[in-house]
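User: quick one, fold this
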Amino acid sequence: MKRVEELLHEIQCIMEDAKAVPLTGGKSLIDTEQIMDIIDEIQDSLPSEVRQAKNIVADRSQIIAEARKEAESIIREAEEKKKQMVEQNEIVRAAHAQANEILNDCKAKTSDMRKAANDFVEDIMKKTDEAITVQLTELRKTRQNIKMTQKTGTGSNL
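Assistant:
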């Protein structure tokens, strides 16, 4: 394309340097053979430059098509990664919820077990206290009886 521009510039210079013909209303005299040679060179240069331009356009289209394919692939991969991350996030969230539920169940069971153990111990201690009280009462009665028999003298034959 550069060669065509140079040739067009050459024609422009020839036109600017051309001698004006008097009484023709600003028309100039130029060497038509020189201009025709330049036009022939332009015509010879155009097919290769047009071909080169077409190749550039074709390459541009191919590059754009490849870029689109790559962009679509990147988008698909990103969406798949996002989906996996969301699924993983959901799994983590569900695991946290399940862990909290298990922890709450354990706390409730621990509390129930502690209460049951305290109630059991309280019950045993109450029964033990009652049994000791009964035995203490019996012991006191027995001592009282012994003291009474000693005072009355009936127990001296032993």
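User: anything notable?
Assistant: The first strand starts at residue 19 and ends at 20.
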